[in-house]
Amino acid sequence: MLYFCIMIKAIILDVDGVISGDKKGYNWPDPHPDVVRAIKSINAKGIPVSLCTGRGAFGIHHFVELLDLNNPHIGDGGAVVIDVHAQKIIDAHFIPTKTAQSIVRKLQNHDLYLELYTIDGYMIQQGTMRDITQKHAAVLGHDAKLVSSLIDELDNQDIIKIMPIARSPAEKALVVKLFEPYQKELTLQWGTHPSADPYEFGIITQKGISKGTAALKLLETMNVEFEDVLGVGDNVTDWDFIELCGYAGAMGNASSDLKELVRSKTNSIIGGTVNENGLLDIFRYFELLE
Question: Which of 113, 100, 78 is nearest to 237 (CA)?
C-alpha cells in the first residue's frame, strides 16, 4: 500500500526535538545520519520537506545544506519565510523600533538575559554573558555579536525577534508578566532545546506571528494544499501549523498537550523520541520510506 505516500505532497518539520536532539555525536549538533538519509530520500522523490523553527533564519542554512533541501523554510517562530537556495526572503515581519526599545528596557531592568535577532544574526549586550550564551551559540552554530547597548542598536537595526531566555519557572513567569502590557502589539511564544534544559526560550515577534501564519505563506509559495501536508513537532506551539495539516505527527518527547492535540486528528501518529530517531517511525507509518 502506498496510499499515504501518494497523498502526502509536502512535509513541514520542527527542528529542535524533532530532527535535532541532545546526544552529542549522535543527533546533536547534526541530526542522526539515518534521519538525514531519510529526509534526503523523501525530498528527492519530489515531496518537499520544509523546516519550521523558532531558531533565527540564519540558523536554518546549515540544515538546508546538510539535508539538500531546495524549497522555502520558516524561521524565528514564523516571523521569516526564507528560500535559502535562492537567497530570497519571501516574507519578514519586523518589530516597530519604539515598541522594541520599550520592552527591551523593561526586561533589562529586571536583569533578564536577552538576545536580539536580525535576519542575518543576533546580538547580546556586553557584560551580560551567562552559561547559556555558549550553550545557545552551540545550538545555533553561530556566536552572538557583542554590542555596548541593545537599546542603541535598536535605532540602527531591523529587529525580527527579541529572545528573553528564562533559566527557571520563576523567570519565565516574570517574562510573561512583563509582557502583558504589549499583548496588543507583540506575540510571545516559548520554545525549548533538548541540549539546553532547563532553559526556555521566549520568542517575541510582531503581533499575530506564528508558525501557522508562516506556514500559510509557505504553502502559498509552494502551491500545495494543507490537506496534502504532513506536519511534525514536539512543542505545543507547533500545533499552530500541525492543526492546519491533513496528516500529523508528534515525537515521543513531545509535550503531553501536543500529543493530545495530534491524537485528535484522523491521520496521525505519535512516534518515538528524538533520541530514538522517532521521526523515522512517523515516516514509516505514512509509508514515506521503503
Answer: 78
* Close Cβ partners of 269 (under 8 Å, ≥ 6 residues apart): 248, 249, 250, 262, 281, 282, 285, 286
- Positions in the chain short of pLDDT 70: 1-6
Distance CA(216)–CA(226), nearest Å, equals 8
Question: Which of 58, 29, 63 has its CA nearest to residue 144?
Answer: 58
The pLDDT tens digits for 69-107 are 999 999 999 999 999 989 999 999 999 999 999 999 999
3-state secondary structure of 169: helix
Quickly tell me which residue has 534521519 as its cell: 35
Please report how the helices 278-285 and 33-44 are oriented relative to each other, as an axis angle in degrees rounded to 10. 30
Let me know if 167 is exposed, middle or buried by CB neighbors in 10 A (0-12, 13-18, 19+): middle
How far is 148 from 134, CA to CA, in rounded Å?
19
What pLDDT score was predicted for residue 4?
Answer: 63
At 19 the pLDDT is: 97
User: For the chain, which domains are there?
Assistant: 3-92+210-285 (3.40.50.1000), 97-206 (3.30.1240.10)
pLDDT at 215: 98
Radius of gyration of the chain (CA): 18
What is the spatial distance between Cα 93 and Cα 160, in angstroms, rounded to a whole number? 6
What per-residue confidence (pLDDT) applies to 206? 97
- Angle, CA of 214, 29 and 9, to the nearest 5°: 40
